[in-house]
């Protein structure tokens, strides 16, 4: 199944903090098929990173695992960007040793559920489907280097494929209404 946007809304996201482990993938490598992120996710589960985050349950904004990307340290000449494999927490959450945190101010955020059979195809399609839907709803995507995107792997939608093997990944994109 070709990835399809099955739900879309613009929400008022409160201040949150993303806490997790940091990787620096290269955008050019990703486009050419050299994707380090599946191995990074596997490593984060196997080395206890998510188990450590789960001990912070009192601080959860949402308990779903997230893949958070931003351009804060992006260098167009190199193509590397920051990718955090972690969880959304409320402000004030302690940051375990060896983890990083990104504080996100309150913002309007476009949330889309994209359904498909392959996570990489879903995330690639999000870069087309989400901006189109944001514009169709009279808003603008935040495109500056401080902009960010986030994949949210909600267990009810992601961990249980439908009869055709499709899952849903929630995508968060900051926008300006």
Q: Using DSSP, what is the number of strands?
A: 9
- Secondary-structure arrangement, i.e. CATH architecture: Alpha-Beta Barrel
The major β-sheet equals: 9 strands, antiparallel
Helix and strand run: EEHHHEEEEHEEHE
Quick rundown:
This protein is an alpha+beta fold.
Write up this protein.
The protein is α+β, with helices and mostly antiparallel strands and 177 residues long. It has one domain (4-176): Multidrug-efflux Transporter 1 Regulator Bmrr, Chain A. 24% of the residues lie in helices and 39% in strands. It is built from 5 helices and 9 strands, in the order ββαααββββαββαβ. The chain has helices at 27-31, 37-46, 49-54, 119-136, 155-158, and strands spanning 4-13, 16-23, 60-70, 82-89, 100-104, 107-116, 140-141, 148-152, 167-176. Strands 1, 2, 3, 4, 5, 6, 7, 8 and 9 form a 9-stranded antiparallel β-sheet that branches. The longest helix is centred in the C-terminal third of the chain and has 18 residues, at 119-136.
Topology:
Layout: E1 4-13, E2 16-23, H1 27-31, H2 37-46, H3 49-54, E3 60-70, E4 82-89, E5 100-104, E6 107-116, H4 119-136, E7 140-141, E8 148-152, H5 155-158, E9 167-176
Antiparallel strand pairs: 1-6, 2-4, 2-5, 3-4, 3-8, 6-9, 7-9, 8-9
Task: From the structure above, extract its key features.
177 residues; alpha+beta; nine-stranded antiparallel beta sheet; 39% strand
């Amino acid at each position: 199944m070709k990835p399809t946007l099955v739900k879309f809304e613009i929400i008022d996201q409160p201040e949150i903090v993303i806490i997790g482990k940091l990787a620096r993938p290269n955008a050019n490598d990703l486009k050419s098929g050299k994707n380090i992120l599946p191995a990074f996710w596997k490593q984060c589960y196997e080395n206890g990173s998510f188990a450590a985050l789960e001990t912070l349950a009192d601080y959860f904004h949402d308990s779903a695992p997230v893949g958070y990307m931003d351009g804060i340290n992006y260098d167009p000449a190199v193509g590397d960007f920051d990718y955090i494999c972690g969880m959304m927490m409320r402000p004030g959450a302690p940051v375990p040793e060896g983890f990083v945190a990104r504080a996100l101010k309150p913002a309007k955020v476009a949330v889309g559920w994209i359904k498909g059979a392959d996570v990489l195809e879903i995330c690639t399609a999000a870069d087309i489907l989400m901006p189109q839907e944001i514009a169709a709803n009279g808003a603008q995507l935040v495109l500056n280097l401080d902009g960010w995107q986030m994949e949210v792997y909600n267990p009810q939608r992601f961990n249980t494929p439908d009869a055709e093997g499709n899952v849903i990944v929630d995508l968060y994109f900051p926008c300006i209404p």
